[in-house]
C-alpha cells in the first residue's frame, strides 16, 4: 500500500503484534499524517498517540477495543506526536512514559512542528529501559538529533523498530537548532546502522523494509550536504538563505524553512569542528 493510500482512522495490521492508525494531520512536514502504533494482542502499548484530535482519539479507542493499555510511549514531544497522550491516559488509566521533557528557548523561526509545552511523562525512559506486556517487550533506544530527547523503541520479539521522526518512510528528518543537533543526529544514524533491526515503523510514511540500506543512504546524503556547504563557502561567505537557494533547487517552497534549519544545523556542527565560522548572518570557511 502506497503512503498516499493509507486510510485515516482505521487500524491496519502490520504484523501480528503491531497495528497502525493514521491521524488526520497531513501537511508538508507530516506526509499523510502522524502514525500511531499499537503493540500487543491481549494487552497493548500505544506509541505516539499523535495530536489532540477527537477523531483520532476515537479511532485509537476503537483499535484498542477495551484491552488493557500497559503504557503510552512517546518518542519525542513535538505537537504532532504527544498531545493525544493526555486524554488517552485519562480514558485508559495507562501511564505516559518515554522521552524526557525539555524546555526549548526558540531562536528565530522554527520550521518543524512546535513542542508540546504540556508534556509531562509519568516515567522518563533512558537507553535500555523496557516496557513489557503479554508476549511483547519494547526497549528504549536513545536516538538524539531530530530533538535532544528523541527515543526509538525496539520490539524484541520481531526485531521491529519504531523510529519516530529519526528515520521516516518518506523524507529525511528536519534537524532544527537550537534543539536539533546535526552531530548527534549523525551519531544516532550510525548507532542504528550497527543494529540488526528487520523493519522500521516510522512516525510518518510507510514501513521501511530494508532499514540498514536506508540509513546508509541517509548518512551519505547528510555527508554530501556537508561537502556541498563547504564547497559553496570555499567560493565566498554566504547566508543560510543563500546556501538554501543553491542547494535546494526545485523543492516545494513550503519546505525552504525546513531546509534552512537543517543547513544551519550543518553549519553549527561544522563550526564546532573548526571548519567554518559565523560572522553575523554570514558564514565563511576557515
From TrEMBL:
<dbReference type="Pfam" id="PF17778">
    <property type="entry name" value="WHD_BLACT"/>
</dbReference>
<feature type="domain" description="Metallo-beta-lactamase">
    <location>
        <begin position="32"/>
        <end position="204"/>
    </location>
</feature>
<protein>
    <submittedName>
        <fullName>Beta-lactamase</fullName>
    </submittedName>
</protein>
<dbReference type="InterPro" id="IPR036388">
    <property type="entry name" value="WH-like_DNA-bd_sf"/>
</dbReference>
<dbReference type="Pfam" id="PF00753">
    <property type="entry name" value="Lactamase_B"/>
</dbReference>
<dbReference type="InterPro" id="IPR036866">
    <property type="entry name" value="RibonucZ/Hydroxyglut_hydro"/>
</dbReference>
<dbReference type="InterPro" id="IPR041516">
    <property type="entry name" value="LACTB2_WH"/>
</dbReference>
<dbReference type="InterPro" id="IPR050662">
    <property type="entry name" value="Sec-metab_biosynth-thioest"/>
</dbReference>
<dbReference type="InterPro" id="IPR001279">
    <property type="entry name" value="Metallo-B-lactamas"/>
</dbReference>
Amino acid at each position: 500500500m502506497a503512503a498516499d493510500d493509507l486510510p485515516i482512522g482505521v487500524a491496519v495490521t502490520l504484523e501480528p503484534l503491531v497495528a497502525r492508525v493514521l491521524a488526520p494531520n497531513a501537511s508538508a512536514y507530516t506526509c499523510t499524517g502522524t502514525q500511531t502504533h499499537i503493540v500487543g494482542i491481549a494487552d497493548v502499548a500505544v506509541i505516539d498517540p499523535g495530536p489532540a484530535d477527537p477523531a483520532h482519539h476515537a479511532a485509537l479507542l476503537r483499535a484498542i477495543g477495551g484491552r488493557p493499555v500497559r503504557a503510552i510511549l512517546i518518542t519525542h514531544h513535538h505537537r504532532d506526536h504527544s498531545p493525544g497522550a493526555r486524554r488517552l491516559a485519562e480514558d485508559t488509566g495507562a501511564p505516559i512514559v518515554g522521552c524526557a521533557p525539555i524546555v526549548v528557548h526558540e531562536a528565530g523561526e522554527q520550521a518543524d512542528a512546535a513542542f508540546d509545552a504540556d508534556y509531562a511523562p509519568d516515567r522518563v525512559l533512558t537507553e535500555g529501559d523496557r516496557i513489557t506486556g503479554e508476549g511483547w517487550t519494547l526497549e528504549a533506544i536513545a536516538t538524539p538529533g531530530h530533538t535532544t530527547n528523541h527515543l526509538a523503541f525496539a520490539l524484541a520479539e520481531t526485531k521491529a523498530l519504531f523510529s519516530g521522526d529519526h528515520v521516516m518512510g518518506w523524507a529525511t528528518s528536519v534537524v532544527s537548532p537550537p534543539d536539533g543537533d546535526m552531530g548527534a543526529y549523525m551519531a544516532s544514524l550510525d548507532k542504528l546502522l550497527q543494529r540488526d533491526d528487520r523493519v522500521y515503523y516510522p512516525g510518518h510514511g510507510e514501513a521501511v523494509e530494508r532499514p540498514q540500506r536506508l540509513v546508509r543512504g541517509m548518512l551519505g546524503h547528510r555527508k554530501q550536504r556537508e561537502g556541498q556547504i563547504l564547497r559553496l563557502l570555499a567560493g565566498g561567505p554566504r547566508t543560510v538563505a543563500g546556501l538554501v537557494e543553491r542547494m535546494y533547487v526545485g523543492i516545494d517552497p513550503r519546505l525552504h524553512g525546513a531546509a534552512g534549519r537543517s543547513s544551519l544545523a550543518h553549519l553549527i556542527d561544522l563550526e564546532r569542528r573548526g571548519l567554518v565560522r559565523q560572522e553575523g548572518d554570514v558564514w565563511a570557511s576557515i
